[in-house]
Amino acid sequence: MTMLAWIIAAGLGMAADWDPVKEADRVMAGLVTVTGREVKGAHDAEFVIAGGRAYIVAMANDVQPGENAEWAFVYCTLSVVDIKTMQVLKRVPMAKGGQVFKNATLPEGSCFVPRIIRKDARTVRAFFASEAPGKRPAQTYYLDFDVKRLEFTGVLRKARIRTRAGIFDMQPRRFYEDAVAAGFKREPRDFGLYTIDSFKEFDGKTYVAMNNYPGGQNGLAELNRKRDTFRVVGHVNPAGTEKLSESAVNRLPDGTWMAIIRQDGGTGNYMFSTSKDGVRWTAPAYRDLVPNGGSSKPNFEKFGGVYYLGWQESTRVNGVSRTVFNVDVSRDGAHWERKYRFATDKSFQYASFHQYEGKVYLTVTQGDSSPSRKERIMFGRLE
Count of domains in the chain? Predict the structure, then answer.
């Protein structure tokens, strides 16, 4: 490690002999499985922690590894974990196509990309997309979970999306039409609209990155105080033909927004975009910080004044994809140092990181034998 790197690392609270691989191995050794034994495929978890318990949502299925919006047997589930003992206290089925709720019946189709947020002292709210590609427009719904009773209230509600044209049921075409008005050129899709990033608070408001994965569409949204409507703030569109999706956003010390964005096809490497107001974004471009990214969801968090940038390397362990994942840290968003390098043929993909009482926890997708390695959701403590 050079003297400059040592100074930067020391300023970030890392010892001069810090070993990113060794520290990542330590983290992985402490991970616990939170999905049930019946689960054959699982992916893309998110979580919140409240009252010493982690509430983890994920999509899962009991048929085969992996996930696909066209698989009607993909459902969403919630696991409750005691963070002191790392014991799963309860696994609760959340949403499945055709499920009957107190006030409505969910349409047949997959339940995809769940996200969760603290609503109030007693409630966490979980969002998910109900999809049947080519058969009907996808719709984002939400359910409330009572953290005292450890059960869902049983009432299904439609989330809403607010664009310049008005307020509508949250469906892909509304996001698409607003993007087209801002210069978006790709074709519309009837599924794939997700709030892909973690919810983040800035200036007393809640923001989240939105995307349409199959459509290659990205944007920033603000969630209202009632936690039921997403207002589209701005769109992040490429200047070229790149297909970009699944961004993670944060704000730099001077208030500038920055997004790291996944690329599918092309070089496969991540691109970056910035914005002064969240409305108008620069054309996405490569940065030397990420020289060999692989197509997967990134992370961009800030804990204790330190930014955490998580990204998938294209490097493969034993020929398996999504097996190397880096976490770089910075205080200014400009000078970065490697803190963790996760490398395992079980894969390390679609991570999520959150801080609770000064400690950072994570979820991640892993597997043992399938090509995708999307077999279970793991939970543990990063630091």
Answer: 1
